[in-house]
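Summary for the steering committee. The consortium agreed at its last meeting that each partner would contribute one worked example illustrating the joint modelling workflow. Our contribution is presented below. We chose a case with several input lines so that the handling of multiple components could be demonstrated. No manual editing was applied between input and output; the record is shown as generated.
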Amino acid sequence: MGLMLAGCSSGGGKPGEVELTNVSYDPTRELYQAINPAFAAYWKQKTGKDVTFRMSHGGSGKQSRAIIDGLEADVATLALAYDIDAISAKGKLLPADWQKALPDNSAPYTSTIVFLVRKGNPKGIRDWGDLVKPGVEVITANPKTGGGARWNFLAAWAWGRKAGGSDAAAETYVKQLFQHVPVLDSGARGSTTTFVERGIGDVLISWENEAFLAEKKLGKGKFEIVMPSLSILAEPPVAVISANAKKHGTSEVAEAYLRYLYTPEAQTAIAHNFYRPRDPAIAQQFKAQFPEIPMVTIDKDFGGWAKAQKTFFDDGGVFDRIYAKK
Amino acid sequence: MLPGFGLSFGFTLAWLTLIVLIPLATIFLKAAGLGWSEFLAVGFSPRAMAAYRLSFGTAAMAGLVNAVFGLLVAWVLVRYDFPGKQVVSALVDLPFALPTAVAGIALTALYTPEGWIGQFLEPLGIKVAFTWIGISIALVFIGLPFVVRSVEPVLADLGREVEEAAATLGATRWQTFRHVIFPAIGPALLTGFALAFARGVGEYGSVIFISGNMPGRTEIAPLLIVTQLEQYAYAGATAIAVVMMLASFAVLLLINLIQAASRRRMGA
Amino acid sequence: MSGRSPTTEGPLARALLIAAALGFLGFFLLLPLLTVFSEALRQGAGPFLDALHTADALAAIRLTLLIAAISVPLNVAFGIAASWAITKFQFPGKALLITLIDLPFSVSPVVSGLIFVLLFGANGLFGAWLAEHDLKIIFAVPGIVLATVFITFPFVARELIPLMLEQGKDDEEAAISLGANGWQTFWHVTLPNTAGACSMVCCCATRAPWASLARSRSSRAICGARPTRCRSISRFSTTSTISSAPSRSPLSLRCSRW
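What follows is the complete predicted structure of the assembly.
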């Protein structure tokens, strides 16, 4: 039996108070805990109105389905554009070109995929090629069930393709890589637990923000972050779910909320929560924290999410092929 | 003849239809939208078959373990007095009350090579976490209350007169148990097994952490359903659900028929 | 044989059986539970206790009570009717009926959430109609009640049936032959006979909603201790599929903070 999250009585109390429902994915909890009060103060000052928030966090795909199935989110802030595309395609709750509504592909913060290794890096892991050396155990989640794991997979693919010069080489590399994976958790959080708490594996392929969290908070002094020579630009997008916002009369505040994410104040909070800020000035300030590494992008190098999903992760795709009879 | 058949039977049937049959029918309806060939492709793929074998096999295994030890626990709780009995009795229900994910995480922590129990098993070459053994252990944990709580009331209600009669006739304690007590509690025990088994087949939260989820090896059937949902393939998800449901139905029906037959043989 | 009753075992056998039962429970039940508590309390009891006193926790308790208040009577009424029909009468297809009652247990939590989405979700069978009339079922209390009733459906009936079977129907038939009518027989014979089990069964039926409360508590407590945990925890749950919802509702109680 599950946890019950009630739909609770909506439509807050006092007049002049609006309520905004932000449906997000797992690791953004602290980020929005920092940003929401700041936006509320900003909005109060600007319009004299109070805004309160209801947050929902969960796996990105599951959250997307909840919105499609009727969870009335005003804004969605998910892990990948594919999940918001689905809300548009299957739920018809926002226009198909939603990603053009806000700057930078509607992704006010970015992240990338890095390695987390144990203190002192005993297996000497420096780059993707080291992951398939004998005796190295790699922890990553199942890309069919976890959004974060899809970024991991594509980053590995990109390196394999660059190193070997072809898609065939990339597939060989990724197949080898998954032979080094002893446990396939269903999501990024699960694999972090497996690596950090259970002590399984030599290297965790992880979101950069999660890796920082593990390094700085979960296991201070027990882990190190390794930046590979090539990674992928992860753009967690945000969007107003326009049909719901219109129904709630929150279109204006919802849009202002998402635009607020691009302001210097919000961008600073973003950097403090280990996401890479978009604002060049703020990025400059945090340069030491976020070293620049070459990154591929989903649109340029993989032809967008729809194509990548179909090629790699849908039934019968590359990932299934890797695990089909060895 | 007792009265009330029409009323109780009618109410049972109406409520069953409303709460169970109609909702379950939607699963079949959705799966029917797939068409035969795709239904077979999704519902009977090699990976799905491996997952069914794993889910049903481990659930049956856990059900058997629970039938034996659940009976033992129920027996001890009903028949004997010992210090701390109330606490033990309350403990039995805890798997009901614990979030399955919490149970899963705790079991995984225990049985990984560095865990409290795992560290002793590892040198012996026994791997529990991330194998089918770990899955079975998780299912034993969540299934235990079903057997204990099915058997307990029947055992408590069992009159001592027959046992006394058996003893008077010179039966040993073991003979009395085998020929008098066991047949009386048999149906309850089967019920407990059936419930623990049924629960184990569909269990997700507690298993997902300890199973390791390796495709074709430790991937349980409910995980495949989640995989389908992640692709927004609701119909594909229902295809696997339908296969699981029909298989569970067949197994449960078999158990219930055996139960009915044994009751008739005993001439109840 | 110093006065030992013929219907119990010798002290040695008794000690062995108790030891075996406790050993099994200790290994398979107590140890995992201890692990849970040791994890939850790793940061001391403070965060654990704090977690129980938040507005979110109180909201969750209220919601749980409400759901139990609705679903338990429904399940008890059904359970009594079903076990009466099944144990006191002969009719064809009885095993089939029992099996259908069992079926919800075998339905994966993953699927039972999906069922209600397919029925009442925005794109479900009744979705359009519900939206038109501005009615909410999933992501709201009715959905949680429905899911709870569905999941706990077999509980009462399944625990009463073996007991009523064992008791047979002699008492009831005697009452009838003495001139009692059906209701009188039920109230004065059947119900007292099964009262013990009934109350236990009611506890059982209540447990399901309480379980979710306990769940939120413990996960929250674990949240306090370990972020990684709570995150993963928050994803797994039946009802969460159909009622995953914004915080300020019990949802957040799982782990709105680290």
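Chain A has two domains: 17-107+235-262, 110-234+294-323. Confidence is low (pLDDT under 50) at residues 1-13 of chain A.
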